[in-house]
Specification:
By secondary structure, the protein is an alpha/beta fold. It folds into two domains: about 5-225, Spore Coat Polysaccharide Biosynthesis Protein SpsA, Chain A (Alpha-Beta Complex), CATH 3.90.550; about 255-440, UDP N-Acetylglucosamine Acyltransferase, domain 1, CATH 2.160.10.10. Helices cover about 20% and strands about 30% of the residues. The protein is built from nine helices and 37 strands. The strands form five sheets. It has a 23-stranded parallel β-sheet that branches. Strands 5-4-1-6-10-7-11 form a seven-stranded mixed β-sheet, with helices on both faces. Strands 30-33-36 form a three-stranded parallel β-sheet, with no helix packed on it.
């Protein structure tokens, strides 16, 4: 029978140093709320169920995980320390017998592989408690690991409770543990708040195990960044920087060219195909998928878009919730708003804005155009300065342009209106009625020339 592992993720704290109306664990790190990262690491390590101990903004945290069948919530009404948090989770683990993986909700750099190693190390040593540790040159603020003559852990001393000799210890407590559930729930109620903080420390279970003749071990993590907790905006930025570096490294190893990885801001859920080139200053976020052989120019912002192969997104363009098919060119300085669909070989030029616009294969709008709530066929040419007038002050209306139509410069299409296939709308026309197929639409005031008007306008007034 497989040895069971459950995870407890402590996420009840407010995060006062964040100075935010948003609870700390919901602050985003590389496109995901901070708490998602330790939850994902626990899943990779094989933990099930996962019990999230919540307190501040418990409803918001619970709503975030409402669709996660493996996540249970335990409520810690008053934050009285890590030992108290674990005690609050007892009800959600009733009937569970196995290994408890205890994590912190503010450690977004923790890897699933590290937790797997911790579990294996814990089981191989038949320990009651195994703690993940790190060696730090500047250990200030962390609890210190005190080992006995055999190398096992004899106790963990919090920084505020440590004496001068203990403060010199460089091995620190990560706050991440493996413990056997029967041991935890047999002793958790015996913890006392006899410390500088007046809290129930989970670390006191180490001393409790030693006094009962049980073994406590430690596994030192290779990359000390993994145990870094996020307590303020400075640490949030640092954690994001480290995660970006991991994400960008993985992309480059899989065939993506990043001209300057340090200036490429790519979220964790983004997928990019090989031979795509990303220029500096780009932000690619959300659930964006980019195909192979694309070029993403300098300063481009892309959020939750699907982009096919061989597309070119030129400098300064902004794309949101849009879909681009094969060999599409966009920009420079274009803005694709949500609901835009550009099919194969479409061209969107500089200072073109689209919103809920579908453009068929081979169509183009090369510059200075607004296309909103529009359905545009294939091989349509949209001239410079064209506007779909889609909003009447109360409702939005659609413009339909048939295949092969030619829309001249400075045309206003007052929706709802349809331009038939192969029709031509002359420059400067305001279209207020449907245009039949194969027609010419022209609606502008006849030109009048007044000879000598310019000279007369300069004559002095009597």
């Amino acid at each position: 029978m497989k040895h069971q592992v459950a995870a407890l993720i402590l996420a009840a704290g407010k995060g006062t140093r964040m100075k935010s109306a948003v609870v700390k664990v919901l602050h985003p790190v590389s496109g995901r709320p901070m708490v998602d990262w330790p939850v994902m690491a626990a899943r990779l390590a094989g933990a099930d169920p996962l019990v999230l101990v919540v307190g501040h903004q418990a409803d918001a945290v619970g709503d975030h995980f409402s669709s996660s069948a493996d996540v249970r919530l335990a409520y810690q009404a008053e934050q009285l320390g890590t030992g108290h948090a674990v005690a609050c989770a007892r009800g959600e683990l009733e009937g569970f017998a196995g290994t408890l993986l205890i994590l912190c909700g503010d450690t977004p750099l923790l890897r699933g592989e590290t937790l797997q190693n911790l579990i294996e190390h814990h089981r191989s040593g038949t320990a009651a408690v195994t703690v993940l540790t790190a060696l730090l040159d500047e250990p200030s603020g962390y609890g210190r690991i005190v080992r006995d003559e055999t190398g096992n852990v004899s106790r963990i001393v919090e920084h505020k409770d440590a004496d001068l000799e203990e403060l010199d210890i460089r091995e620190v407590n990560s706050g991440i543990y493996c413990m056997e559930s029967d041991f935890v729930f047999r002793h958790i109620d015996s913890l006392k708040p006899e410390n500088a903080q007046g809290e129930y420390y989970l670390t006191d279970l180490v001393s409790r195990a030693v006094s009962n003749g049980l073994t406590c071990q430690a596994l030192t993590v290779f990359d000390s960044d993994e145990i870094m907790g996020v307590n303020d905006r400075i640490q949030l930025a640092e954690a994001s920087r480290i995660l970006r570096r991991r994400i960008n490294r993985e992309l480059m190893l899989n065939g993506v060219t990043l001209i300057d990885p340090e200036q490429s801001f790519i979220d964790a859920d983004v997928v990019i195909g090989p031979d795509t080139i990303i220029y500096p200053g780009c932000s690619v976020t959300g659930t964006t998928v980019i195909g192979s052989g694309c070029t993403i120019g300098q300063g481009v912002s892309i959020n939750s878009c699907r982009i096919g192969d061989l597309c070119q997104i030129k400098a300064g363009s902004v794309l949101e919730d849009s879909e681009l098919h094969h060999d599409v060119a966009v920009g420079p300085m274009a803005h694709l708003r949500p609901g835009t669909v550009l099919r194969d070989h479409v061209k969107i030029g500089n200072f073109v804005e689209t919103k809920k616009a579908v453009m068929g294969p081979g169509s183009k709008a090369s510059h200075l155009t607004y296309l909103g709530d529009a359905e545009i066929g294939s091989d349509v040419n949209i001239g410079c300065g064209t506007i779909t007038c889609n909003y009447d002050g109360v409702n939005k209306h659609r413009t339909v342009i048939g295949d092969g139509a030619f829309i001249g410069s400075d045309v206003q299409l007052v929706a709802p209106v349809t331009v038939g296939r192969n029709s031509l709308v002359a420059a400067g026309t305001t279209v207020t009625a449907d245009v039949p197929p194969d027609s010419l639409a022209i609606a502008r005031v006849a030109q009048v020339n007044k000879d000598g008007w310019r000279l007369r306008s300069k004559e002095p007034k009597p």
